[in-house]
Design brief:
The protein is an alpha+beta fold. It has helices at about 70-100, 115-120, 125-130, 170-185, 245-255, 300-305, 310-330, 335-340, 340-350; strands spanning about 110, 145, 160-165, 190, 195, 210, 215-220, 225-230, 230-235, 240, 275, 280-285.
């Protein structure tokens, strides 16, 4: 799969981007006034007399005419003109605002809408079974790397464990989080999921996704640990730091991100996302192209996850079946309702898992 990484395999983004991200686009500064308009007094000759109309000699004084009244038609047309002006101003303001948002330097992290969370965590079992491993070729699918003869992964004193190491700016992480969030929801419960979008200047710019920075996952079957090392906020060195792996997590990264376990990898170089599923399988650089999600909102993606004929759904659900199969291999095929489903069994067979 094509993608960004620090010379690692399988695409993905690197935790230390090589090039500086562009500085956030700010609004244009207010133009300074070239000059101030000066009011000028209206000049004219003073009338002869004390004001008003001067009576003619020997004649009657002429009455001063009263103020003219505007016609009803003129008032009506004036009101219409005012309404038109207001509408034009509102349109300009909205257009300016939309342009400003589309040119923003990054997408902020906000709590996920309940409807989006529900859609991604309650995909019908029939959809998983219908999709199986049928990821569209346009998604340039990249299967998890199966490990052998490795001890079960233990983190935070819990076995088995699943470890995700990525970054909010990373477009390949953006795609993978949809599949991970769906897959893990079959084994437990998510809380405090956030949403954001990947880098606005990387490949597949501004791919809508989740963030795990505040999320928690509870399960009777496995422990899930996540590290979002960088934000989506550009900085002089790439992106601002967010979270760092602890000593045990760093040991997992150092050991399993090596060419010993990831074909084509370079020692010391890590492809985002890096995922260790119980030491049963690894994902390096993502399993499908984030280009599949281009131009789609969170709601667009989530609301179609019940449609097994949708190519985006196939990319996400097919990947989720692969992830589910490797989780099942680490949980001794529990829960059986998930692990014995035809979609997971298809992925188990494809990966040649026991």
């Amino acid at each position: 799969m094509a993608g960004e990484q620090k010379k690692g395999a399988g695409g993905g983004n690197t935790p230390k981007p090589g090039s500086k991200a562009p500085k956030p686009v700010s609004g244009s500064p207010s133009a300074k006034d070239a000059s101030r308009a000066q009011s000028r007094p209206i000049s004219g000759k003073k009338p002869v007399g004390k004001g008003g109309n001067t009576p003619r000699p020997g004649g009657k004084s002429q009455p001063t005419p009263g103020p003219r009244r505007m016609s009803g038609a003129l008032v009506a047309w004036g009101a219409v003109g005012l309404v038109i002006i207001i509408i034009v101003v509102l349109v300009i303001v909205k257009a300016t605002s939309s342009s400003s948002n589309s040119n923003a330097a990054f997408t902020p992290v906000t709590p996920a809408a309940a409807s989006v969370v529900k859609d991604v965590t309650s995909i019908p079992a029939s959809v998983y079974d219908k999709v199986g491993t049928n990821i569209p070729s346009a998604a340039t699918p990249n299967r998890p790397i199966v490990l052998s003869n490795q001890p079960a992964l233990t983190l935070n004193g819990h076995t088995p464990a699943m470890f995700y190491y990525g970054a909010e700016y990373c477009p390949y992480c953006a795609g993978e989080r949809w599949a991970m969030t769906a897959a893990l929801s079959r084994f437990g419960t998510w809380s405090n999921l956030d949403v954001t979008a990947s880098s606005h200047t990387d490949v597949a710019p501004a791919t809508n996704t989740f963030s795990y920075r505040n999320a928690t996952f509870t399960s009777p079957y496995l422990t899930f640990v996540s590290v979002e090392q960088y934000t989506t906020i550009p900085s002089s060195s790439g992106y601002t730091k967010l979270q760092n792996p602890n000593k045990a997590e760093q040991a997992v990264i150092s050991k399993y991100s090596s060419p010993t376990y990831i074909p084509g990898a370079t020692a010391g170089q890590i492809g985002f996302p890096f995922i260790d599923i119980g030491n049963v399988a690894l994902i390096s650089g993502g399993t499908f192209s984030p280009q599949m999600l281009a131009g789609l909102s969170h709601s667009d993606i989530a609301s179609n996850l019940n449609d097994p004929t949708n190519s985006v759904t196939q990319s996400i659900v097919g990947t989720a079946n692969y992830i589910s199969a490797t989780i099942c291999a680490s949980t001794k095929q529990q829960p059986s309702t998930v692990c014995q489903s035809s979609g997971v069994q298809a992925a188990t067979k494809a990966l040649k898992l026991g």
